[in-house]
Amino acid sequence: MPSPVPAALPQTCSPTVWLWPGQALYAGPALGLDPHSGSAWCLAVGVDGPLTVTVGTQRVVTRTALIPPRVTHHLALDGRLVTCYLDPASERSASCRLRFTQFQGAVGIDHERRDALLTLPQDDGAAARWRDAAAPAAIHPIDARIKMAAKQIRDDPAVSIPAGEMAAASGLSESRFLHLFRQETGCSLRRYRLWSRLIRAGTELAAGRNLTTAAAEAGFASPSHLADRFKTTFGLSATQLLATGLTIRTP
């Protein structure tokens, strides 16, 4: 029996993704996402009304939610959505966490600047201001050794530098390095490399590359490998997302 054709995504507004080094911001219609588990911190905002985050048997209803890496969740809402994905090794992810004083299980609720986030960015300047309100930079620096290792991965995510080599460069044993990396970022070294590759693939697509070239440049073994990792991380396929007429911006 042939596989069902995915339903078209809503076209109630023009969807846009902004990409900065280690960060991504989506603004547009709710996308009917499947349950997924990301490699980055995800700030989700229901612009027109509350969103529902389901983690296991727990349901959280809120206008703003902060979802940690490695937490499988389902995100549902009617209307428009803004999601901001924050590099777990960045000061911005740390500062965003500090702006949530309430948590239901693993999920943060009610960002302290909620009202400022209930808008849909329409241009590069508005997107940067939204990100800065959600997650100001340079609030809580992470360990300098982990910051350097994370930058090395971001600079060339297609290269798989062995953990032992990175640990030695940091002056740490491999086990201590991996523990500290997870402690500082909230995700494993493997997941961080995946996140960096997804961001690089998005940047390549924004530059006009096709999926095959984007996958190769980002370090994925094949376009299907990129497609699988994309859907697992974001809850829908890259093909579905691109079919909305998505605009990808790299300001």
UniProtKB/TrEMBL annotation:
<dbReference type="InterPro" id="IPR009057">
    <property type="entry name" value="Homeodomain-like_sf"/>
</dbReference>
<dbReference type="InterPro" id="IPR018060">
    <property type="entry name" value="HTH_AraC"/>
</dbReference>
<feature type="domain" description="HTH araC/xylS-type">
    <location>
        <begin position="147"/>
        <end position="244"/>
    </location>
</feature>
<dbReference type="GO" id="GO:0003700">
    <property type="term" value="F:DNA-binding transcription factor activity"/>
</dbReference>
<keyword id="KW-0804">Transcription</keyword>
<keyword id="KW-0238">DNA-binding</keyword>
<dbReference type="Pfam" id="PF12833">
    <property type="entry name" value="HTH_18"/>
</dbReference>
<keyword id="KW-0805">Transcription regulation</keyword>
<dbReference type="GO" id="GO:0043565">
    <property type="term" value="F:sequence-specific DNA binding"/>
</dbReference>
<dbReference type="InterPro" id="IPR050204">
    <property type="entry name" value="AraC_XylS_family_regulators"/>
</dbReference>
<protein>
    <submittedName>
        <fullName>AraC-type DNA-binding protein</fullName>
    </submittedName>
</protein>
